[in-house]
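Protein chain data
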Amino acid sequence: GTSAHFYVDTLDYLRRGGRIGAAQALLGSALAVKPLLQLRDGRIELLEKVRTSSKAIARLEEIVADRAGSAQVDIAVHHLAAPERASALADRLRARVPGLAELHVSEVGAVIGAHTGPGLLAAVVSPR
């Protein structure tokens, strides 16, 4: 099925919105790590913690490419106030995903943005 993975600069917005537990948020900030998250069954789960934002974004690319495999897929890259990051990720996914059919890049709306904060970078993989 469809999978959604994303990177946020800080867990504060998700914690304030009650979308992620205080303990998980605290763990993220205490270690000064960059969280990679996934959406599963409508719940946000902490997938991995990475040391720097550039490593986290490289890891996001890897996870998405692995998820896509060689199947025919559509990918949507979403961002909030991070257009350069989003287009760079999109370019790298175009080069890496052999079965890529369509790739869309867009900025998320205010409602999602309020939960994630600026710096959000997300990739949604949908099998054809």
